[in-house]
Design a protein that fits this description.
157 residues, mainly beta, seven-stranded antiparallel sheet, 0% helix
């Protein structure tokens, strides 16, 4: 279940709140991930990655600002503690190997500030994991561990 609330404070500021409560199990329909008891590999959960790999509660808040050529946003996220069953490979058995690892609750804060220098060129500064430098931030297929601050040049045609 997910609830999204958006509010436009004025023409330059907006706020978005997103709360997700995960109540759906991760049961797999594939028998190789279920076993005779309905439990997954290592007797953990149901399905390929276990039933508790999704945080039970996630809260996101996004504060946006946009004015002429300037844009900025702050993104805050809270995630409740959960477990994650990490898939891997065992050279010994020649089969999938799974490790159950706890993920503690975390808070993170990401920030973005950008300005269009001219019509098609912009400069942006971004900061990730500003509150909790133990968190890993994913951007596409790349993961970034710890606190990161970088600059970006945008060229648009």
């Amino acid at each position: 279940m997910e609830v999204v609330l958006k509010y436009q404070l004025n023409k330059n500021w907006s706020v978005e709140n997103n709360v997700a409560v995960n109540i759906i199990s991760n049961q797999s329909s594939r028998p190789e991930y279920r076993g005779s008891s309905g439990r997954g590999p290592n007797n953990i959960g149901e399905g390929r990655y276990g039933s508790s790999y999704v945080p039970p509660y996630i809260y996101n808040a996004l504060l946006n600002f946009g004015w002429k050529r300037v844009r900025a946003n702050l993104h805050y996220q809270y995630s409740a503690a959960h477990t994650w069953q990490w898939p891997g490979w065992s050279a010994t058995t020649g089969k999938d190997a799974f490790t159950l690892k706890p993920v503690p609750r975390y808070d993170l804060l990401n920030a973005h500030f950008g300005v269009d220098v001219i019509k098609h060129i912009g400069v942006a500064f971004e900061g990730y994991n500003l509150l909790d430098n133990r968190h890993t931030e994913w951007r596409g297929d790349e993961s970034y561990f710890g606190r990161i601050i970088w600059a970006r040049l945008d060229v648009r045609y």
